[in-house]
Amino acid sequence: MFAKRLLQKAIHHSQHAVQRGSLTPEDLKLRVTVHYGIPSTASILAFDSIQRLLALATLDGRIKVIGGGGIEGLLMSPNQLPYKYLEFITNQGYLVSISNDNEIQVWSLDSRSIACCLQWESNITAFSIVGGSHFMYVGDENGLLSVVKFDPEDEKLMLLPYRISATSIGGNVCCFIQLDTLVLYENSGEQLNEQNVAGFSFPDDQPSPIIGVLQHSSIGNSVLIAYANGLFLLWDVSRGQVLFVGGGKDLQLNDKLDEPSRRVDDNVPIDALENSLADKEISALCWASSNGSILAVGYVDGDILFWKTSITASGRGQQGSPSSKNIVRLQLSSSEKRLPVIVLHWSGNSRAPNNCDGQLFIYGGDEIGSEEVLTVLTIEWSPGLEVLRCVGRTELKLHGSFADMILLSSPGSAGDDPKVDLFVLTNPGKLHFYEKTTLSAIIGKSKTDSKLPVSPLEFPAMIPAAEPPMTTSKFIKLPIGGFSTKILSELASMKLSSTEIQGTSANWPLTGGVPYPLPTTKDDKVERVYLAGYQDGSIRVLDATHPVFSFICHLNGELEGIKVAGLSAPVSKLDFCCATTSLAVGNECGLVRVYDLKGGADEKNFHFVTDSRREVHTLPQGKGPQCRAVFSLLNSPVQALQFSKCGVKLGVGYGSGRIAVLDVSSSSVLLFTEAISNSSFPIITMIWKEHSAATHGPLESPRHSGAKSAINYAEELLLILTKDAKINVYDGSAGNVINPRSWHLKKESIAISMYVIESGISVSGSPNEKHTQESSQNPTTKSESNPGSGATGSNLHESQHHSSAEETRSTEKFLDSYVLLCCEDSLRLYSVNSIIQGNNKPTRKVKQSKCCWTTTFKIKERDFGLVLLFQSGVIEIRSLPDLELLKESSLQSILMWNFKANMDKISSSSEQGQIVLTNGGEVAFLSVLSNENEFRIPESLPSFHDKVLAAAADAAFSVSYYQKKNQLPSAGILGSIVKGFKGGKMTPTMDFCSTRESYCAHLEKIFSKTPFSDSSSPALKNAEELTIDDIEIDDEPPAAASTSSEEVKEEKRTERQRLFGDGNDDWKPRTRTTEEILTTYKFSGDASLAAAHARNKLMERQEKLEKLSKRTEELRNGAEDFASLANELVKTMEKRKWWHI
User: Fold this and answer.
1) CA–CA distance, 937 with 545 (Å, rounded to integer)
2) Which pLDDT score is estimated for 197?
3) Where is the composition biased (Basic and acidic residues) (predicted)?
């Protein structure tokens, strides 16, 4: 009856002209609001050991920053170029990157944007940040090492005068060896040739690029510079001197080291070089000792050389050069064709007595064509560093092609922990973590166990997209204050998900970042949910209210205690009903699962419904979501799922072209049709539309027995679209077809989606629109408004007349609506009236090519828009209903993505203009509207920089260098204390700075001038010979000379000038020591007096030494105690954020 009545009205209904859309380009701003996952093009790792943050630079101009607890962010560079260097300014909230166009970019983690940048004129080939400061070493292709400073207050990059060129080094210094200590003497202006410096060779016409810059592990003022031609040197930045030179083409190594005792692993041949180092290009290097006495250098030919930087010579004045006894070669393979050594990292064992034992992590150096692995060698040296032994070799199998690796030190450790954590990045965008205990156990295995499989921890993604593969998703905004909001909020508070499911792990090292401030009221409810279905049949439900998502629940593919074939098949479709909190899940095997998220202990029945039978099972009691029914009607993939507005009915469309209507409340089948399309094309879209009608029967009000009134109810229409662009309209209540013939296009086309757009003509300014909507949602509203009134005949007549008029308005409103048909090659707009009558002439038509996904959005319930995604990656935004193009963008410009297959199947959106796109392991949430701020950005964004933790770390830093000083040899301690008590000028070094500020000020003083600005070395000319007698403890400062004495000195000087000339000669009398004066005058001829004086002098020296030793011990104990407290504070604050305090 209803279908016939609607068809008759459609025939006599006149269609209004299509209105122009009110959406404007100014209303649109396509941008990324939330990003999860690791980009597939990630290539470089960086780690902040204090803030516990990990950064990954990509090949397309993006930087991913990952913290703890779901805190992630994406930094987008305006230039889509690969990055070649990435490093944190540790604990300062800044990240430095260098792109392939040699632009140095400093990113502010607070603002998530570029704070400043500096374009380098030449090709940057090496980069390193000076630890604990804002200074950076930049090496280029011309062999020039420059220093750049970042000013955090003004956020500016400045190029400082301090520059080291290869020619300036080769022409100003030469090396000599004496008494285990390298002493340097300036050439006194004489130009040295290249042979005067051991191994030094820089052709003027072909400058060698700098390919590596390493800070010395124990001498903070030293830096190692490596050149592509195989030469490297250790440079003292404060004195402007070379401390060590290695490599070069003139070094011949002839000593054999092939004794059997020196080989413990035939796979790691260790011997000395027999040929010269000519044509050996450096490809990687790292310090291979805790004190910087051993350097490991990897070469393009696959060799690894260990260089001893502490070498001896016979005496002062003899030209020093590294001998063959101080260089050892290591080869991972005996093959002639080997891969270059790409990466070298060292993990030292501070417990070793020689500070040179540890593990060497190597990528490369193996035979070409061999399995791609990461090799870990356990190295041990003999006490005199004469023999190198490899006592273990472990090969870690990579999960993809290698991209980068990084070693993590524990918070508060000195960096020489014998057990370290390891991050390995492989392509495409896979991050694996080897925890220190597991890695140490694997490394400690014997040779026979070295290739046993190792299971590292995978990156615990908040929204997994690749492992397991995501197959479908849905993004839903919940009604404000609705029933679903309350239920999901309670469900989220239950913390039902396991630790692994929540994306965290007890051993996972990334804990950095500070979430948005916790709400102070109890009204913080779940406003949005994100549903994701996976290939293993599981579903994840996440709270997407804030930019940091949180888990609500995880639903497995299997049911506990019940076996149903096909339940674990890949999820193909999802739908959620806000009115009943019911979740429908369809899979590739045709099964439909219905979950009740609110649960309930009193509801324990499970229904299994097929086309021929119905089974009822008892579910085990438990909290959280419960599966109430599984429908298995057809072995065909579920392609469409749609709840009716009230949530009682569920429409199911299959890949075979058949449809079913299910009654969720009774777990029964209301309608199951044959294939709609003759060719059995899949159902791709199902839309429920309510059409208000009225009934005048004697229905009783449910709350007031006996009160009879006419109530409103909704006739439900079901619009169905198949893949071949045919549209059918069904009566959702009786299952009758309203349009006897399927509506179809004249020309064959592949349909993508269909939408029903309500027209604003008949509803604009309607005073009863809101009331009508409320009445349809709550049938008792009308009777509750007049609880005490009776239903007289006149009132009943007026009610019937009102209902009839309302039905007419509802019918006109529905017939004035539009049906938007989106196909691969076109967009077509039809009136509902035309669809019902079978008229295929469109009201609007736009031709296009290869569209693959669409969605609609609206503003203030009136302004509609359409988003289209094309296979080329182009994104268009059009207004509705006129289909006018407003804005065009692309995946490449927004996310640096290219379109991939099946991207359309796992994309979703909300009606408020929020789009969710998935690509590989990435999930990106985009906002379309310029004034939309559902995530409350920026106030709700998490902070990457924990200022409380940074303050605690600075407190520990203030004593760390003094602690290092106490670990140096006693001679160094004694010398510094002597100069401190004497008040003499001490050459400042990093080891003796008490705070980070003073350390940075010290570096600023060094780098603010050129290294060769002085004509002579003040450190050598003004070196003061000190003895134990020079120590003055608790002495009063000498009294200042009076004015009269100065006048006397001036008068004497004037008389001397008259006696000896004009006084221009720089003549000074020789200064005699105290012992010389006493021997000449006081003790002449009396040996006993001289001996007694010497004895007293020795006793005085002994007392001074005892006092000095006591003070030294007090200072050492104080520094160690404070350092221990500071380190404990760092560890504590790393775990406890400010909102826990």
Assistant:
1) 12
2) 40
3) 798-808, 1046-1071
Q: Which helix (H) or strand (E) holds 271?
A: strand 270-271
Give the span between the Cα atoms of 1053 and 1057, in whole angstroms. 6
Do 760 and 726 touch, CB atoms closer than 8 A?
no
Digit-coded pLDDT (tens) for 88-141: 999 999 999 999 999 999 999 999 999 999 999 999 999 999 988 999 999 999
DSSP helix/strand/coil, 1094: helix
Q: Give the ranges where 1061-1086 is alpha helix by DSSP (H).
A: 1074-1077
**pLDDT, the chain, mean:** 76
The pair of structure tokens assigned to 1048 is 């006397």
DSSP 15: P
Pairing mode, strands 626-632 and 605-610: parallel
CA atoms within 13 A on the CB side of 512: 27
- For 292-328, letters b (16+ CB in 10 Å) and e give bbbbbbbbbbbbbbbbbbebebeeeeeebbbbbebbb
The per-residue DSSP string of 557-587 comes to SSBTTB--TTTTSPEEEEEEETTTTEEEEEE
Contact present, 135 and 200 (Cβ < 8 Å): no
Give the helix ranges, DSSP H, for 983-1086.
Answer: 996-1007, 1018-1021, 1043-1060, 1074-1077
Give kind and range of the element (H or E) at residue 956. helix 947-966
Token couple for 921 = 């392991």
User: Is 783 exposed, middle or buried (CB count within 10 Å of its CB: 0-12, 13-18, 19+)?
Assistant: buried
Which parts of 606-687 fold into alpha helices (H)?
none
Q: Kindly report, residue by residue over 1084-1120, the tens digit of the pLDDT.
A: 556 667 677 777 777 887 787 888 778 777 777 777 7
Q: State the pLDDT confidence band at 55, using cuts at 50, 70 and 90.
A: very high
Number of residues assigned to the chain: 1141
Confidence bin at 955 (pLDDT 50/70/90): confident
Calculated CA dihedral for residues 474, 890, 102, 214, nearest 10 degrees: 10
How far is the C-alpha of 734 from the C-alpha of 43, rounded, in Å? 59
Torsion of CA 61, 67, 72, 78, to 10 degrees: -20
Given a contact cutoff of 8 angstroms between Cβ atoms, the answer to whether 49 and 953 are in contact is no
Q: Residue 76's pLDDT band (boundaries 50, 70, 90)?
A: very high
The SS3 assignment for 717 reads: strand
Q: For residue 400, give both structure tokens.
A: 């993809």
What span, in angstroms and rounded, lies between the C-alpha atoms of 780 and 702?
7
Which stretches of 90-238 are assigned E, i.e. beta strand? 94-99, 103-108, 113-119, 124-129, 135-140, 145-151, 156-164, 173-178, 181-186, 210-215, 222-227, 232-236
Give the span between the Cα atoms of 905 and 916, in whole angstroms: 11
Ordered by where they begin, the domains of the chain are 2-13+463-498+525-780+815-929 (2.130.10.10), 166-459 (2.130.10), 947-1135 (no CATH)
Q: Counting beta carbons within 10 angstroms of the beta carbon of residue 81, is it exposed (0 to 12), middle (13 to 18) or buried (19 or more)?
A: middle
CB burial of 679-702 (b: ≥16 within 10 Å; e: otherwise) equals ebbbbbbbbbbbbbbbeeeeeebe
Residue 625 exposed, middle or buried by CB count within 10 Å (0-12, 13-18, 19+): buried
Q: Phi and psi at residue 692, in whole multiples of 5°?
A: -65, 140
Q: Which of 415-424, 442-451, 459-468, 901-910 has the lowest mean pLDDT?
A: 442-451
Angle subtended by helix axes 996-1007 and 947-966, to nearest 10:
70
Cα 642 to Cα 629, 687, 826: the distances in Å are 16, 7, 25
Alpha helices in 453-584 (DSSP H): 483-493
C-beta atoms surrounding 12 within 10 Å: 8
Phi, psi of 654 (to 5 degrees): -105, 165
pTM: 0.78
